[in-house]
């Protein structure tokens, strides 16, 4: 993903790299080219506007102050602004003072939540936690079974609906799962929830009810980076509905344009915490804005 964006931006740097002097026209040409590349990659318009205005202003200041090596300076300014729109420095997960830490997943159907639950469970285990996955997606017929399979692959136990703990009632499954985790002293609980193909009020209400039942320390909004322009609207709907504290970008291994997903931190004001890069339980990493920016600008 982002190969085209990356090629376009690095090509635009060729004109300025190593130049001893930069004119306003040089800056304008480079910034315009980057602007076009960002828009073509589906980065949201307000984000592109903010980005180009900031870069242009700082670049002109650098030229006015006769910075040494202004071409290199411009590249650094672009890099820093890109890091900024990607959400800046990474933060750690919010952990409970009194475990278990409760992490709830939210997002559309197919976004990659169930797959992520396994990945996150495995990652938490590596971080020294004892996680429990809770199957509160009862919408998709196969979702519970799928969570059990990813749980097995990740080596993490799964709380699934059974008679007495909330069959048919995702809120009750979440509640009993959390009680079980408290009872057995699990240190982290990951609650998988149902999504629909599009945002609808019933789905959002169910997510809100689960949220209110388990009072999560983190609500992670899982966003399929391949859904293109819809990413921003979907993120806004979840922000205004159930709300969330962090974003997980999934399917970053795809070859779609994906720029809309890059806009999500700026648009929603919440950081991207993790990236999912494939179907395997190991295809998962912490998201670092600076590393993503250098990948794009390399
Ligand atoms: P959910 O409906 O949100 O629980 O989504 P799933 O976890 O079932 O994922 C939907 C589909 O996307 C499944 O076929 C997954 O294997 C696939 N998937 C999930 N995450 C990724 C990813 O990071 N990359 C790729 N290529 N596929 C993924």
Automatic annotation (TrEMBL):
It comes from the Bacteria. Keywords: Cytoplasm, GTP-binding, Hydrolase, Nucleotide-binding, Ribonucleoprotein, RNA-binding, Signal recognition particle. It catalyses: GTP + H2O = GDP + phosphate + H(+). Residues 271-284 form the SRP54-type proteins GTP-binding domain. Its main location: cytoplasm. It is an enzyme of class 3 (hydrolase). Its EC number is 3.6.5.4. It is found in: Cytoplasm. The keyword RNA-binding applies. GTP binds at residues 107-114, 192-196, 250-253. Signal peptide: none annotated. Composed of three domains: the N-terminal N domain, which is responsible for interactions with the ribosome, the central G domain, which binds GTP, and the C-terminal M domain, which binds the RNA and the signal sequence of the RNC. Involved in targeting and insertion of nascent membrane proteins into the cytoplasmic membrane. Binds to the hydrophobic signal sequence of the ribosome-nascent chain (RNC) as it emerges from the ribosomes. The SRP-RNC complex is then targeted to the cytoplasmic membrane where it interacts with the SRP receptor FtsY. Part of the signal recognition particle protein translocation system, which is composed of SRP and FtsY. Belongs to the GTP-binding SRP family. SRP54 subfamily. This is Signal recognition particle protein. The gene is ffh.
């Amino acid at each position: 993903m982002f190969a085209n964006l990356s090629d376009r931006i690095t090509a635009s740097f060729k004109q300025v790299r190593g130049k001893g002097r930069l004119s306003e026209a040089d800056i304008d040409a480079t910034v315009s080219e980057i602007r076009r590349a960002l828009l073509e990659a589906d980065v949201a318009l307000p984000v592109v506007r903010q980005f180009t205005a900031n870069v242009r202003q700082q670049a002109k200041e650098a030229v006015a102050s006769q910075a040494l090596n202004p071409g290199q300076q411009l590249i650094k300014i672009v890099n820093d602004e890109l890091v900024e729109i990607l959400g800046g420095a990474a933060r750690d997960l919010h952990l409970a003072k009194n475990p278990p830490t409760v992490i709830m997943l939210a997002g559309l159907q197919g976004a990659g939540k169930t797959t992520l639950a396994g990945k996150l469970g495995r990652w938490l285990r590596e971080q020294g936690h004892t996680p429990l996955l809770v199957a509160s997606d009862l919408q998709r017929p196969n979702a519970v079974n799928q969570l059990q399979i990813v749980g097995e692959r990740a080596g993490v136990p799964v709380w699934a609906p059974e008679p007495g703990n909330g069959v048919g009632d995702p809120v009750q499954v979440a509640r009993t799962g959390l009680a079980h985790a408290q009872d057995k002293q699990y240190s982290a609980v990951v609650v998988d929830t149902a999504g629909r193909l599009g945002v609808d009020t019933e789905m959002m209400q169910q997510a809100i009810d689960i949220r209110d039942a388990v009072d999560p320390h983190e609500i992670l909004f899982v966003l399929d980076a391949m859904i293109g322009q819809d990413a921003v609207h979907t993120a806004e709907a979840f922000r205004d509905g159930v709300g969330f504290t962090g974003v997980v970008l999934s399917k970053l291994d795809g070859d779609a344009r994906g720029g809309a997903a890059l806009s999500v931190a700026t648009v929603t004001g919440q950081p991207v915490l993790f990236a999912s890069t494939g179907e395997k339980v190991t295809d998962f990493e912490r998201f670092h804005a600076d590393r993503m920016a250098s990948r794009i600008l390399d």
